[in-house]
């Protein structure tokens, strides 16, 4: 019986790839994916609240003043905090391009005077589309990882069967 390098190589490659899919690594990807989904949901909620408050007639009528100045568009402290939190989570969990688009949407001027707010809606759709595509890309990568490990196991099995 002669020494078969292909079987050894296949076993080594399979061991390396299998270690990449250990429960710890898979758990890390699940945690990261959940963090992205949570950030996405918070980003959607923050933009929706900002838009709703900016177009609320009663809320905009009662703008507080400080030293004779008031905000152009009044938003509550809760919405302001929500926007800041969503902004930081998007920055942490998504690409720089996705963050730039979200940040631009969150900074787009929305007012009763500019109804319909087509610029905001266009920017919001663009930002959320990019965020959703990044989440989908992560899911596709997980599927590819699983297919690679299955392929390696089949490869080693077939090598062992053909030379065994």
How would you describe this structure to a colleague?
This protein has 164 residues and is an all-alpha fold. It has one domain. 78% of the residues lie in helices and 0% in strands. It is built from 6 helices and no strands. Helix 2 packs antiparallel against helix 4. It is rod-shaped and about 85 Å long.
Overview in brief:
The protein is mainly α. It has helices at residues 5-20, 23-54, 57-61, 77-93, 96-107, 118-163. The model has no long low-confidence stretch (mean pLDDT 83).
Fold topology:
Elements: H1 5-20, H2 23-54, H3 57-61, H4 77-93, H5 96-107, H6 118-163
Helix pairs in contact: 1-6, 2-4, 2-6, 4-5, 5-6
Shape: rod-shaped
Beta content comes to under 5%
How would you spell out the order of helices and strands?
Answer: HHHHHH
Sequence stretches where pLDDT stays below 50 over 5 or more residues: none
Number of domains: 1
Give the biggest beta sheet.
Answer: none
In whole angstroms, the N-to-C terminal distance is: 9 Å
* Overall average residue pLDDT: 83
Q: Helix/strand/pairing class, anyone?
A: mainly alpha
Q: In angstroms, what is the radius of gyration? A: 25 Å
What is the number of strand segments?
A: 0
Tally of individual helices: 6
Helicity, as a percent range: over 70%
**Assembly of the depicted chains:** single chain
